[in-house]
């Protein structure tokens, strides 16, 4: 047991930061025992000293000089500001000044992780970020360490609580997207500007981080095909229900066989999954991540995906690890990109489509529709036809094909004279086909 | 990248060991990249050289001299023999000779972990054991590391696949215990002598390991209250079904307020849990572990709880970590028992009971039964009464009370003249009461 404390600087004191302050205080005896030295909070950088906070920060710790704090020779810097700047500059400065870093900043990691990891390597310090994906759920450490002797094939997750809350509302109440979003905003599950969540930017950043760790390859946010949920309609949700499925916004990272050998596919989009799939029962703002690997098989990790206190739990877990490493003067597991696989574009990724079409109810329509699938070499798994007065509805579920072929098929269907409207197009995931 | 290989000795080449051999070979390039040095299998100790194996072990590696192998100066010893001896002596010798150890041996850890951890401390080497609990599911590392900044309150898990398979069969088919056990044996889910599984010894060892890690306190197998499933009847399972519940064998580790302050309670017994609880949907031989902590809230970890290949995945994950540590000449997280809490006896632990009773159908019986609960200061949550000809059936679910008071109540009920038979007694877990 060392008597010299591990000195910690905190950047940001919002919903996560204030819970970090609280846990550092409430758990201080336990943290000391687990780290092997006292953990001392020596400064908290904030934008405004007089802002209302959820926690009382001890006298003298608050400062608006974040740059001065990270350069003051602390042992660990915890960054929970979020966003690209000034977070990036502060983390880089912290590493240059010899601090280890714990961050929850998914956007920065997914945009420019390479710069951060290079700086950590150069400084010989740790850069840990469990809190950046799926809040309190331990998922990065299992991927990096527990599965280090295995080959991960797929990571399939619900990693954005806001969109899951909205889709869950739409499923249970029949509400449309706008109505469900408003309820999420009223309850504090969605922000006033919900773009980052509903358009899938947040989930895409997390998918990039998950794919990087799972496949030992650098994957950035722009490598991830991204579609949000703002176009998901009540009709899509109802159509899923008829199929015994539910619509979820999924982050999907696959190890695939590309034209030049193994490659990574990473995508975020809404998809129908069968209600019997474990991810289907993930309700409200919870998160869950499925991992499939060669030897372990299917694993699932479930828990609260956001919130100040759960995210702070993940931050503190990392803090204990990097503090222990400091005391031993070693580094934990760093970035691993040795596999250096290519990233497959979405068009070349194989998926399955569910397509609902309003057509004229006359002979030959089904054959004509089937012909459009065949032209793109897409084979059909099931067709359900329901007459409705002069119209009929066709619901087609395809077998696996490239996304390019599938979307070309849908475009061709829209041009058909017999097709009144393509009412729902949604990818299908999570069943064995 | 080091050119000097990490030299690994394997003890045991059964269903787990043979998969370790296979993965070491198939993943050798990845393992080298992840560890930072080649990982070389230098010997495999077996009882009989000519036994049939699932894997071809390279010429010259097999030996019956396990003692010689562990003393030969290898870097890491992987022990997958199981049982107390010779596993304990071999692990102690390995540590004395400077090797780090990876083991899947739950029975040994739960019986005499203290001796092993002391030897690891003395040698300054790692002792890792992720594979000892819940197969491939990363649960020990998250408890030890990811949640190191949090306070764990409860670990509630299905950690024995054999008993879960049997109970699942009983639930879905209405089979009795004996019939379901025979099916499990025929399918290879249960051993010819199923005692360790069905009487809860295996789950109790895992509960001891989980409680030790969760509460930073040494908990051994005999500290764990243990009841198996051989007394679970078709009537119990049917009674659970009527309640909207299902019977599962649970390992339950709680941080509780004892008479002298915080204490640990650890127990393994069948219990009814509501079908809406995530653990209720854990089918067949799968495992799942719920963790509740102050800051993170509820987390769940799910996956295959046994099997050669999943268990080997967990072994290899540990192997990568201890190999990396060897290269850096450091130790990972060791035993943590600083909290040193007392272990509460089962009688003092609070639980809830579901009791089904056949009684004479006459006035005053319900009052008399309720009186027996009141005598022990146990309050009743619900009573359901069903007339059946001359008899009636009462189903009583209690509020929380000490197990002592609850079992005394049941004993008193059995003595009542109005009671023909107590047909089902089962604890209730997993609902919010």
What does this structure look like?
- Chains A, B: Keywords: Amino-acid biosynthesis, Methionine biosynthesis, NADP, Oxidoreductase, Sodium, Threonine biosynthesis.
- The structure is a homodimer of 433-residue chains.
- The first copy, chain A, is an alpha/beta fold and 433 residues long.
- Chain A has three domains: 6-135 and 308-328, 3-Layer(aba) Sandwich (Rossmann fold), CATH 3.40.50; 140-305, Dihydrodipicolinate Reductase, domain 2 (2-Layer Sandwich); 349-428, Alpha-Beta Plaits, CATH 3.30.70.
- Chain A contains 14 helices and 19 strands.
- Chain A has helices at residues 15-26, 28-35, 66-70, 87-96, 106-123, 140-146, 161-173, 177-186, 195-198, 201-215, 234-242, 308-328, 365-375, 403-415, and strands at residues 6-11, 39-45, 62-63, 76-79, 100-103, 127-128, 152-158, 225-226, 245-258, 261-274, 286-293, 297-304, 342-343, 350-351, 353-360, 380-388, 391-398, 401-402, 419-428.
- In chain A, helix 1 crosses helix 12 and helix 13 (365-375) runs antiparallel to helix 14.
- Chain A is elongated, with a radius of gyration of 24 Å.
- The interface between A and B is large, with 56 and 56 residues.
- Strand 12 (297-304) of chain A pairs antiparallel with strand 12 of chain B, so a sheet runs across the interface.
Topology:
The structure is a homodimer of 433-residue chains.
Chain A: E1 6-11, H1 15-26, H2 28-35, E2 39-45, E3 62-63, H3 66-70, E4 76-79, H4 87-96, E5 100-103, H5 106-123, E6 127-128, H6 140-146, E7 152-158, H7 161-173, H8 177-186, H9 195-198, H10 201-215, E8 225-226, H11 234-242, E9 245-258, E10 261-274, E11 286-293, E12 297-304, H12 308-328, E13 342-343, E14 350-351, E15 353-360, H13 365-375, E16 380-388, E17 391-398, E18 401-402, H14 403-415, E19 419-428
Parallel strand pairs in A: 1-2, 1-4, 2-3, 4-5, 5-6, 8-10, 10-13, 10-19
Antiparallel strand pairs in A: 7-9, 7-11, 9-10, 11-12, 14-18, 15-17, 15-19, 16-17
Helix pairs in contact in A: 1-12, 4-5, 5-10, 7-8, 13-14
């Amino acid at each position: 047991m060392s008597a010299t404390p591990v000195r910690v600087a905190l950047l940001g004191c919002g919903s996560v930061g204030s819970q970090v302050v609280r846990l550092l205080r409430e758990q201080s005896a336990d943290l000391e025992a687990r780290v092997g030295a006292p953990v001392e909070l020596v400064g908290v950088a904030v934008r405004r000293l007089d802002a209302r906070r959820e926690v009382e920060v001890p006298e003298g710790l608050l400062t608006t000089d974040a740059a001065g704090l990270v350069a003051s020779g602390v042992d660990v810097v915890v960054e929970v500001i979020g966003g690209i700047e000034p977070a990036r500059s502060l983390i880089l400065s912290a590493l240059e000044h010899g601090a280890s870093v714990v961050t929850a900043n998914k956007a920065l990691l997914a945009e420019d992780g390479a710069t951060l990891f290079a700086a950590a390597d150069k400084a010989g310090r740790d850069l840990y970020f469990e809190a950046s994906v799926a809040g309190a759920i331990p998922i990065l450490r299992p991927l990096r360490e527990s599965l280090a002797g295995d080959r991960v094939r797929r990571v399939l997750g619900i990693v954005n609580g806001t969109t899951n809350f909205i889709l869950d509302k739409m499923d249970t109440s029949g509400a449309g997207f706008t109505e469900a979003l408003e309820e999420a905003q009223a309850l504090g599950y969605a922000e006033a500007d919900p773009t980052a969540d509903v358009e899938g930017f947040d989930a895409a950043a997390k998918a990039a981080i998950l794919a990087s760790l799972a496949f030992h390859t650098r994957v950035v946010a722009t490598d991830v095909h991204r579609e949000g949920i703002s176009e998901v309609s009540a009709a899509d949700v109802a159509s899923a229900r008829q199929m015994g499925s539910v619509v979820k916004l999924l982050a999907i990272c696959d190890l695939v066989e590309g034209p030049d050998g193994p490659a990574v596919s990473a995508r975020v989009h809404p998809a129908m999954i069968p209600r019997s799939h474990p991810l289907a029962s993930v309700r409200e703002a919870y998160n869950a991540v499925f991992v499939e690997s060669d030897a372990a098989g299917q694993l699932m990790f479930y828990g609260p995906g956001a919130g100040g206190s759960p995210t702070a739990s993940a931050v503190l877990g990392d803090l204990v690890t990097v503090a222990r490493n400091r005391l031993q003067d070693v580094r934990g597991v760093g970035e691993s990109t040795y596999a250096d696989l290519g990233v497959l574009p979405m068009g070349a990724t194989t998926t399955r489509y569910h397509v609902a079409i309003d057509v004229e109810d006359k002979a030959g329509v089904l054959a004509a529709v089937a012909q459009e699938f065949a032209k793109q070499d897409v084979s059909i798994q099931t067709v359900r036809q329901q007459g409705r007065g002069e119209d009929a509805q066709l619901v087609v579920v395809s077998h696996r094909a490239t996304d390019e072929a599938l979307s070309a098929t849908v475009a061709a269907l829209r041009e058909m004279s017999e097709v009144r409207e393509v009412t729902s197009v949604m990818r299908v995931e999570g069943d064995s086909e």
